[in-house]
Amino acid sequence: MKHFRIACGLLAAGALSTACVAPIPKSPRPITALHVATTGGSDRPITPDWWRQFADPQLDRLVAVALADSPGLAESRARVMAANADVSRVDALLYPHAQAGATVIHGHNSYNGNLYIYNGKTYSLGVIDPLQVDYHLDIWGEDRERVAVAEADARVTQAWQAQTELQLTAAVIKTYFAWQTANHLVAEQEALVELADEARRIIAAAVRAGVQPPSVEVTQRAAWDRARARLTELTQRRAALRYALLALLGKDSSAAVLLDTRADLPAPKRFPLPATIDLDTLAARPDIQIALWRAQAARHRKKLAKIAYYPDIHLTAFAGLTSLGLAKMFYSNSEGFAVAPAIRLPLFEGGALDANLHARAAAYDATIYAYDKTVLDAAAQVATDLAELDNSKRNFADDADVREEADRLAAIADTAYRSGVLPRLVRVRARIRQRSADMAIQNGTLRWLTAITDTATDLGGGAHQPSSAQSLSDLR
Fold first, then answer.
1. Rounded to whole angstroms, how far apart are CA atoms 267 and 183?
2. How high is the pLDDT of residue 17?
């Protein structure tokens, strides 16, 4: 027992000693503040189900189907479950591990063995250890850092799931609106083909009557051919958008998904934005969360590289029964126990510890720079979205004015034709202009809705995250 106490004292002395940690450069400081100017902002934040303001029940249903049935999102959820399970596995390092064991050996020793009186004899050896304990004395916090790494990696995986969900929702919304627009454009283009054919027939009759030169008929026939080619293009685009929408929903082309093609596109007059877009607003973006938690994981790995310089202490113990010959296994004289503290102190690693620390420190610095780049890219993206939002809104209003003017001209031409003041061709061309204005406003509406979707998505889709100050406090 005296020698055991001396050994424990030596172990404790070794544990209290520390190796010389290699010096490393000071890490950079992450971006902690920014501001993106907005026009006409309000105090209303973007809500997680912001697209419901479009009041389109079919869109709401399709988004719900996509979030429930998308294979890509299901894969992300499975990865999150695996990451959370890994956190639980690593968290078990913080506690003593206890187990029970039993061994029965029946063997025969060699006559020339080293077991003295048992040489050349057959024997049975029984060992029962109902309690075997192994405990890592986490003096320097190594196990806690490993848990922190696993938790940060899990948060990265969760942020990837949020990114997948956000991108999937945006893709469903934009593809749905593009598909609905294509439906309307096909209908308008079919009408344009009929009007172009009517104009061609009117001009052909005028050419036969000698009122118009043949070149006019050739020009109108070319316009008719272009209208038919455009109809084919729009029809193909409509089919492609439908297949793309089904794929986003996790369905194949043969799936019986009810899609109402007669729905009108919503045209909100404005889209509410936060009055201030700062780092706290952008922190809801999953890509920023991914960059942030990668930096957190790298910070803890850097700490682990420092802890590798320090002594590592394990404590093992067991208590049980050991007997040569099973008949005496449960006698009191078969009882035994042992306590075995062990220490590992790195003295010379050939520069491996220094290299590992410098690598982890550089990796941490790289994640800080990556975080800064992600924040700056997000700010530039949001600023671009805001500019596109303003432009598309103005263009949408201009397209509406053009359509109103085309409607008035078509009504005047129709009245004049019925009164015999204007020829039939003038009325047909007025209707062509009216249909073209309708198609322009459909495209303008799609651009406006796409700009709204991109802005809401790039602002994080209304997700709520901790403030940037709280998230960055450990990185400073």
1. 17
2. 47
